[in-house]
């Protein structure tokens, strides 16, 4: 480990469309500390690798089958030499030339700071529903927030949603103190490694910082299968870690299908886009809501004891939810108490 050195870790796979812009923005940063760029590629078949060879980066390659969000980031971290580890996804674009200095500043001011994450701004071509989600979550906020757990008993008294907000962390645009990664490494998780890690760090007395002045542009177009999988894994994760259940029973599923469709229709109609595109998103909204609600419901069921499920559907629902978890390589989680 080299004191004062910052290591920037990027994971790639078929990211030729965005990786060059990402690297150019990183290399244009104004910062008084030296930094290195390390890339772990998991089987690119496009021009990603040829683009990478034009930049001063160290490249490591792994087979696609070995990729897991937590494990692969730890693999990359183990090959970095810096005192601070910055992780940024390959399709994110730092906006400011001071993005990096703002992201790492708190590590040199407070030894209790374990992790820092920055703001995300959706792209101009982001679909209206993802745009709405991003603009109404913590990672779109401006300003600076420092989070810690001073008293574990007080944390236990918080509502499940308050616990989630307290532990929010996002590896799209984040940094960690490398020394603490030796004691608290990335969890070997297929999804949600950032949230799991942040919860562990806070429970052990360290601080997490959010920096709204370290923004990146980031969003991507995704199909219905992606959102089904994302909702399954999201709800499985927060149900297991915090006991949050957006769709605890069939009644809530049907209510959410109806109310969610209406809400997304309103979002589509409120977008400042041409009428023809409005019609496209109005038609898309019900299918998206079905994927989000049904995927989330099955994700929650995968974490539930079978005896809490409706009697007539217990075996079938449990089998389906667990089979989907196997397909998505879902990380086993302990249920919250």
Description:
- By secondary structure, this protein is an alpha/beta fold.
- It folds into two domains: 2-217, Spore Coat Polysaccharide Biosynthesis Protein SpsA, Chain A (Alpha-Beta Complex); 230-327, no CATH class.
- The chain has 13 helices and nine strands.
- Strands 1, 2, 3, 4, 5, 6, 7, 8 and 9 form a nine-stranded mixed β-sheet that branches.
- Helix 2 links the parallel strand 2 and strand 3.
- The radius of gyration is 21 Å and the shape is globular.
The CATH class of the largest domain, by name, is: Alpha Beta
Major sheet size, sense and barrel closure: 9 strands, mixed
Q: What would the average pLDDT be, to the nearest integer? A: 89
Helical run tally: 13
| Tally of strands | 9
Strand content: 15-25%
Question: Could you give the topology of this structure?
Answer:
Blueprint: E1 2-12, H1 19-27, E2 35-41, H2 48-52, E3 58-61, H3 69-77, E4 82-88, E5 93-94, H4 99-109, E6 113-121, H5 128-135, E7 144-147, H6 152-157, H7 160-167, E8 173-177, H8 178-183, H9 193-203, E9 207-217, H10 224-242, H11 250-270, H12 275-301, H13 314-327
Parallel strand pairs: 1-2, 1-4, 2-3, 6-9
Antiparallel strand pairs: 4-8, 5-9, 6-8, 7-9
Helix pairs in contact: 10-12, 11-12, 12-13
Key terms:
337 residues; alpha/beta; Spore Coat Polysaccharide Biosynthesis Protein SpsA, Chain A; nine-stranded mixed sheet; 13 helices
């Amino acid at each position: 480990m080299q004191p004062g050195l910052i290591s920037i870790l990027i994971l790639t796979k078929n990211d030729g469309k965005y990786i060059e812009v990402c690297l150019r923005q990183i290399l244009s940063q104004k910062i008084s500390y030296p930094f290195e760029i390390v890339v772990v590629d998991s089987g690119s078949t496009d021009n990603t690798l040829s683009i990478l060879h034009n930049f001063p980066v160290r490249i490591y390659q792994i087979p696609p089958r070995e990729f897991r969000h937590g494990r692969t980031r730890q693999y990359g971290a183990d090959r970095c030499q810096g005192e601070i580890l910055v992780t940024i996804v390959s399709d994110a674009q730092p906006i400011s030339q001071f993005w990096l200095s703002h992201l790492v500043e708190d590590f040199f001011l407070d030894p209790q700071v374990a992790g820092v994450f920055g703001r995300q701004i959706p792209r101009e071509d982001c679909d209206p529903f993802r745009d709405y989600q991003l603009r109404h979550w913590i990672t779109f906020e401006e300003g600076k927030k420092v989070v810690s757990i001073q008293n574990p008993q007080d944390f236990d008294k918080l509502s499940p949603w308050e616990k989630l907000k307290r532990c929010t962390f996002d590896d799209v645009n984040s940094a960690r103190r490398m020394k603490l990664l030796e004691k608290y490494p990335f969890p070997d998780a297929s999804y949600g490694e950032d949230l799991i890690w942040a919860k562990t760090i806070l429970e052990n007395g360290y601080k997490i910082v959010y920096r709204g002045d370290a923004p990146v542009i980031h969003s991507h177009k995704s199909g219905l299968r992606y959102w089904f999988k994302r909702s399954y894994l999201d709800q499985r994760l927060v149900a297991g870690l915090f006991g949050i259940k957006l769709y605890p029973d069939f009644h809530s599923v049907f209510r959410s299908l109806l109310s969610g469709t209406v809400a997304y229709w309103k979002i589509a109609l409120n977008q400042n886009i041409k009428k023809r595109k409005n019609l496209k998103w109005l038609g898309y909204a019900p299918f998206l809501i079905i994927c989000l609600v049904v995927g989330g419901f099955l994700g929650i069921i995968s974490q539930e004891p079978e005896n809490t499920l409706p009697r007539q559907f217990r075996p079938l629902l449990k089998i389906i939810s667990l089979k989907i978890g196997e397909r998505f390589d879902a990380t086993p989680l302990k249920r919250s108490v």
